[in-house]
Amino acid sequence: MMKSYNPTAEVPLRGVRVLDLSRLVSGNMLTHVLADLGAEVVKVERPKVGDDLRNWGVDGIQTYWKIYARNKKSLTLDLRSEQGHEILLQLAEHFHVLVENFVPGTLERWGIGPAVLQGRNPGLIIVRVSGWGQTGPFRDKPGFGSLVEAMSGFASINGFDDRPPVLPPLALADIVAGLYGAVGTLTALRAREVGGCAGQIIDLSLFEPIFAILGPQAANYAITQEVPKRMGSCTNITAPRNVYRCSDGKYVALSASMQAMAERLFRTIGRSDLNDDPRFRTNADRVANNSELDSIVADFMAAHTQEENLRTFAEAGVTVGPVCDISQLMDYPYIREREVLVNYPDPDMGELPMHNVIPRLSETPGAIRTPAPELGQHNSELLGEIGYTEQEIERLAENGTI
For 352-362, b where at least 16 C-beta lie within 10 A, e where not — what string? Predict the structure, then answer.
């Protein structure tokens, strides 16, 4: 695994300044993307407590924080205090973007809502992340990703039909919202740059992004009036497509979503006759008779080891791949040669593997420049920029403002 970090890298978002008031995953994912691409991201955290993401990890190591807070700075600030409000407003005058994920109405109740913030900085882009959005009947409903994943329709199609719906084993709704939020932020920056638009407010719910990635479910239902069933690793769009157990207990995944691929698959498993079988001749036929077809493919896979299946289908040009766990991926040739994982210096581990910067830009790539900050590490630097002396900063620390 290569060591991929460059503290002085020229990065595409250099000069963009972001105040991140958010906690946990959604906002941190949003600003993680911006920070990797060169934005100066300042995490505004609760004094002595910090972002709750610092509490996520293993064996006392803050793995989530180390990954999602890399390339960021940390400023502690009590946003429930009047002095904290004034410092935030002073800071906002010098930033391009502010990200927050408080319960809707919280900033307004504190007297530092968008109208006040943009009164101090008309060009400020404010990203407001919440479970259900800033408007609507669920505005004040708790906005945890698990609730959104359940209500959005995702859980209802995830898992197997003879078992309960399954929530994802990661903060999927938050992560997807963070990615949409990064796109929205860059779009707003571009609009300000070329369109004469001043600052604006981005209303980003967790619900709408994950609902959007489910694709044409609403359109399909409007046409058929049918509610899709949970199908495990199968799909009602193409067939065959599944995860199959091999003779050695390992698994392979197959997706024969194109007509030519399905025909090639049948020839490879010694069943060319299936290409003329009316049950499997077209994709619609295969989907309608997926259970019978899946059993035929599963029997072939079960008669061979994973390695044998992979070799057979690779030689035939059929899209089959291994099901890997993280222990296999750590030194997997693809991972190593593409530098998907890189080692970064870490005070707890010496070096810590983490995913590389994505997406990859050929001329202006992002970079891992700095490790995740200690709580309040940049208090003096950032408050000094807006005119506070060291003595004043010490007093702010003493009275709990920072």
Answer: bebebbeeeee
Q: What local confidence, expressed as pLDDT, does residue 208 receive? A: 98
Query: Residues 369-382: pLDDT tens digits?
Result: 999 999 999 999 99
Query: How many C-beta atoms surround the C-beta of residue 167 within 10 A?
Result: 17
- C-alpha 392/C-alpha 396 separation (Å) is 6
Q: Is 371 exposed, middle or buried (0-12, 13-18, 19+ CB in 10 A)?
A: middle
| Catalytic residue check, 52 | no
Say whether pTM exceeds 0.70.
yes
Annotated catalytic residue, options 52, 174, 248, 276: 174
Low-confidence ranges of the chain (pLDDT < 70): 1-5
Rounded-to-integer distance, Cα 11 and Cα 332, Å: 29
The predicted pLDDT at position 117 comes to 98
Q: Give the CA diameter of the chain.
A: 84
Share of the chain above pLDDT 70, in %: 99
User: How would you label 295-328 residue by residue, b for 16+ Cβ within 10 Å and e otherwise?
Assistant: eebbebbeebebeebbebbeeeebbbeeeeeeee
| Alpha-carbon dihedral angle through residues 159, 208, 92, 118, given to the nearest 10 degrees | -170
Burial class (CB in 10 A: 0-12, 13-18, 19+), 135: exposed
In whole angstroms, how large is the CA radius of gyration of the chain?
Answer: 25
Q: Locate all alpha helices (DSSP H) within 93-171, ordered by sequence.
A: 106-110, 114-120, 145-151, 154-157
What the block records as the tokens of 104 is 């809707």
- Summarised one tens digit per residue, pLDDT across range 260-317 is 999 999 999 999 999 999 999 999 999 999 999 999 999 999 999 999 999 999 999 9
d(CA 70, CA 81): 28
Q: Which residue has the tokens 């994920």?
A: 101
